[in-house]
Amino acid sequence: MRNFFILKWLRNVPISRKLYFTVGLMAMLIMIELATLTFAIKTLSSVRALVGAEGLWSKAQKDAAYHLQKYGRSHDEQDYVAYQSFLKVPLGDHKARLELMKPDMDMDTAREGFREGRVHPEDIDGAIHIFRRFHSISYIHDAIAIWTKGDSLMAQFIAIGDELHTDINAPGATNEKIETTLNKLGPMDDKLTKLEDDFSYTLGEGSRWLEHLILRLLFGLVLTVEVCGLSLTILVSRGISKGLNEIIGAADKIAKGDLTVRAARYSSDEIGILATAFNEMTRKLEKNINALMQSEDNLRTSKKVAEESIIVKENFLANMSHEIRTPMNAVMGFTSLLEQSNLTEEQHAIVHSMKISGETLMTLINDILDYSKLESGKIVIEQIPFSVRNTFESLEVLLQQKAKAKNLALIFDIDNKLPETLKGDPTRLMQILLNLTDNAIKFTETGHVEISVSVLGNEDKGIAKLEFKVKDTGKGIAPDKTSIIFERFTQESAATTRKYGGSGLGLSIVKGLVELQKGSIALQSTPGLGSVFSFVLSYPIAKDGSHVAQKTIAPATPASFGTDQTDKNIKDGALSILIVEDNTINQMLAVHVLKKFGMITEIAENGRIGVEKLREKKYDLVLMDIQMPEMDGYEATAIIRNELKNNVPIVALTAHNMNKEREKCLGLGMNDFISKPFDPKHLQETIIRLCAQAA
Question: 0.90 cut: is pTM over it?
Answer without folding.
Answer: no
